[in-house]
Structures are given as structure tokens and as C-alpha cells.
Amino acid sequence: MRAVTFSADNHITLLHNGAAFFPALITAIDAAHTEIYLETYIFAADDTAMSVQQALARAARRGVAVRVITDWLGTGRLRSASLELEFHTSGIMYRAFNPWFQRGVARMHRKMCVVDRQVSFIGGLNIIDDMVSDDDLRLPLPAPRWDFAVSISGPLVASIHAELEAQWMRLGEMKLLARFQQFKRSRARVRGASHGPALAGLVLRDNLRNRRTIQRAYLQALGHARHSALLTSPYFAPGRKLRRGLEEAARRGVDVTLLLGVGHYRLQDAVSQSYYPKLMKAGVKIVEYSKTNLHAKVAVVDDNWATVGSSNFDGLSLLVNQEANVVIRDVDFSRALRRQIEVGIADGDAVAADAFDNQSWLARAWHGTAFFLYRMLMRIITIGNRE
């Protein structure tokens, strides 16, 4: 289990929603001269995704080496097949992660891009329109999906590029010796200065080298928290260690607030709510957000630690899926992200401390059943990978 390796002197810009993210991404792609790596869970078939696809095609026509990875399940079987044909026609190299579950149940849930080894993007945004739900129904949303990414320039880009390059190699045809050599290279950290402004580090989760790195980063931040911790996630079903970290921070007097998305999946809401009573008893505040699809996986602790990425607070993100977050130690960035989270909290509905004190037996049974089903599912798909 690795600690976060920070590099200094990074320039990091917070991008709120697709309105900020997609123009920045397309501008970077249009300025590319040598290579582009893009990795996403969903690459949809809508106008927004088409604008990104067209920018990638323009880059390929200029002679830029363009490599795209999407998750086979997240993007969909038919869309993946369509992309393979369309990208090939455009001169774009393409690989799908885990088609037909050849690698087991794990998904590639990361959202990253590196252009010319100079600028990178990482966050929670898929390549999909902000105004359309990201499930199979693709229904219109009442407001833009609430999500974040960051653009990065500076030493950290080298780490992100190395990981995307390694992922591309892993998904190709590699002989056993080449895989072993690539594994050894991936064990070596890309080091940078450990002091100075805009400290940032890449934290990954996979089933081999970094099984608990993201969870550990959260636990360390909560363990050192002194004043406040704001954490946001659309899916909330934390394991024992993360629950304990939240509860212990609140008991020490830290103002711990969870901003959680609700209204997307009824069963998921019930699973999340089954955790509420014990957390609130420890002093954790919970706010439910239903204005639109909350998709952000972000946090700020004490205005000097922040993270943006793809990892939810549930078993799939923390124990199964491949995920990627960036951890940032910068006061100005942390305060900017805090302001955005506070807007989300203001738009949400705070859960009353006594909301679950007098639940009906039917409500208790529903939450208990949802929790039982979730735990059984996680026990099955995380065999050999428990926290």
C-alpha cells in the first residue's frame, strides 16, 4: 500500500461541469502536436461526445498519435463496436477495457487525458452530455450534471502520462516478459519535489499494485483533520474503515459533512440511508442532493487538502474498479473547491439528526434488506479483495 507521492509547482485549474471541461479538453486536443491519450468509462453517442470525437479525428489527420481507451460495459457493447469502426476510419487507435468480462468483474472507471505530455485532465466527467442521464435510459436531466474535473500542467503530468501509457500497453498484446518489465517500471514512482506551491499527487486504485491507495488517502486526510471535512459522492456505501474514519473525525470535533446524490437509483438510496443513523449519532452531517444528477467525487479537508477524481465511496470504487484521483495540497484550490461544494450543500436537503429515530418497521425493513443485498453482492464480487 503506497502513500501519495507529491510533486510541486503544478498549475491546477478546477473545471466545474461539462460547460468548463469540454471546451478546455477540445482546445487542448486541437493544439496537440505529437500524442494524445484519452481514457474514459463512458464515451456516449451524443452531440457533446461527437464534438470530442471530431476533435480527436482532426488531431489524427494532423499526424498526432491518438489513443483512446473506454470501458466496454460503461460505454456499452454496441457503442464500443461502433467506436472501434469510427475511430479506425479516422486514424484513431482504440482499445476497450474488459470486453465480455474477460478480466473478471472489474471495470475501468477512470477519466483521464494527457496531451503532448504537457497538459492533463482528470476527474469524474465521462464523455457525455451534461443534460442527459448516464444510465441506459439516457433521460433528460432537469439541470446540468453536477461534476468536476481539473486541468493540470507541471511535473504531475509525467505521472499521469506514465499510467496511461502503461494502461495502453497492458490492454495490448504483450508477452509475459514484457508484462513483467512493464510491471517493474510501474512500481517505480515518478518523483518530484516534495515542497513548494501547488503540491499534487496521483492516486490510483487497481487490483494489483494499488488496491487501497485511494481509501488510504482519504483516511489519512480524515485522521489529520482539525476543523472541517466536506466530502461529496453520488454513491455511498463505505466500508468499515472509512466509516470509522468519518465517525472518529466527527467525535474529535471536526465538522464533517457528506453531500450525497439521491434520486438516481432507489435501491442505492436505501443502501446509503442504512448507514445514516450511526454516522449521524457520531456527529456526521448529511445533506442529500436531488436538484440533478450529482456525479462529483470530491472532498476538501481543512482548506489545505483536496481531491478530485473518479472514486465513489462504495465497494465497487474502493475495492473493485480501476479508479484515479488527484490529491492537491494548495490553499487557493481547496478554498475554490470548498465554495463549489458549499453551493451544492445549499441546494441540497439536510437530513435531520432525528430523522431515523422513529422509523416505521417497513422503512427499517427496506433499509435492512437493501443493506443485506448490497453486502451479499459485494462479498461475491470482492472475494480475495476485502478491506
TrEMBL record:
EC number(s) from the headed UniProt entry: 2.7.8.-
Pfam families: PLDc_2
Location(s) in or outside the cell: Cell membrane
Major localisation: membrane
Start and end residues of each PLD phosphodiesterase domain: 104-131, 290-317
GO BP terms, alphabetized: cardiolipin biosynthetic process
Catalytic activity of the protein: 2 a 1,2-diacyl-sn-glycero-3-phospho-(1'-sn-glycerol) = a cardiolipin + glycerol
GO molecular function annotations of the record: cardiolipin synthase activity
PANTHER family registered for this protein in UniProt: CARDIOLIPIN SYNTHASE, PHOSPHOLIPASE D
Purpose: Catalyzes the phosphatidyl group transfer from one phosphatidylglycerol molecule to another to form cardiolipin (CL) (diphosphatidylglycerol) and glycerol.
Name the UniProt record assigns to this protein: Cardiolipin synthase B
